[in-house]
Amino acid sequence: MMVPVSANATLGHGTFYGDYRERRQVGDLAIADLRPTVPEHDVETHTHDDAHFLLLLDGLYLSSAKGMPAVCNTRALVLNPPGTKHRDCFRGLDGRFFTLSIPAHLWRSAADQRALPEHALQLSPSGLVQATGLWRELRGWDSASPLVIEDGVEALLDAATLMQRVMHRDGPAWLERAREQLEDDWEHTPRLSALACNADVHPVYFSRAFRRRFGCSPGEYLRHCRMERAIGLLHDPHMGLAQVAVACGFVDQSHFTHAFRRHYRCTPAQYRALA
């Protein structure tokens, strides 16, 4: 099914400019696998009633979402809150994308529980892996898939919340410096006492403030940074899994595979095959 194009259109639930190769409804959620059908010059500025995640699988994609390049040619995940005005489109029609649509009332309910973003943005590599898993679920649908999709949406919303917290730098400067240290120097594991000393606060206060601000402990955030780095390296076909494991601080490939599967419910090799 192809959706007609009109200027300043508002697209309804689960509706996109594309050819629906496969689609499912899970309660109020809509998921779909699509290919673009509208040339770049024919796409007008439009909005969506829903919030939606869009996973770029193949092709050249143009998006105004924060963090996206001018033209994206690699796998990427974009979040658009309800009512986002944009002119996102493909350059050419040789593309493929997966969408997950969340009605506005569910988005508002989720926003009551989390600090969700109010503007379009590109999600981190962790969100990218989670969305890829949901696309895989759509392709291999079975009776348990609806529960997997619902749980996966919660994980994506958590990923968006963490991105919002990291990008919205309204906390104490010392806390932001500590987070940047963990992110920039992810190869090394600092002591909690050293982080607290650099911030000139007590370790107990530091740990509590970090959890309150970022929703996880400093150690959990460091693991998150290492996993994000590993996901990026998995996109390099010239690096073996053992090399990726060592480069990101894991004891060996087995340790890396176990940690990856625990986080994302698939192995690094399975993700690489999909990517």
Automatic annotation (TrEMBL):
Q: This protein is called what?
A: AraC family transcriptional regulator
Residues annotated as coiled-coil are none
Q: Record's Pfam families? A: HTH_18
InterPro entries in the record? AraC_XylS_family_regulators (IPR050204), Homeodomain-like_sf (IPR009057), HTH_AraC (IPR018060), HTH_AraC-typ_CS (IPR018062), Tscrpt_reg_AraC-type_HTH (IPR020449)
Q: Which SMART domains match?
A: HTH_ARAC
Residue ranges occupied by any HTH araC/xylS-type domain in the UniProt entry:
176-274
Keywords assigned by UniProt, alphabetized: DNA-binding, Transcription, Transcription regulation
GO MF terms, alphabetically ordered: DNA-binding transcription factor activity; sequence-specific DNA binding
Organism this protein belongs to: Montanilutibacter psychrotolerans
Which PANTHER family is this protein grouped with?
A: ARAC SUBFAMILY (PTHR46796:SF6), HTH-TYPE TRANSCRIPTIONAL ACTIVATOR RHAS-RELATED (PTHR46796)
For the keyword Transcription, the answer is yes
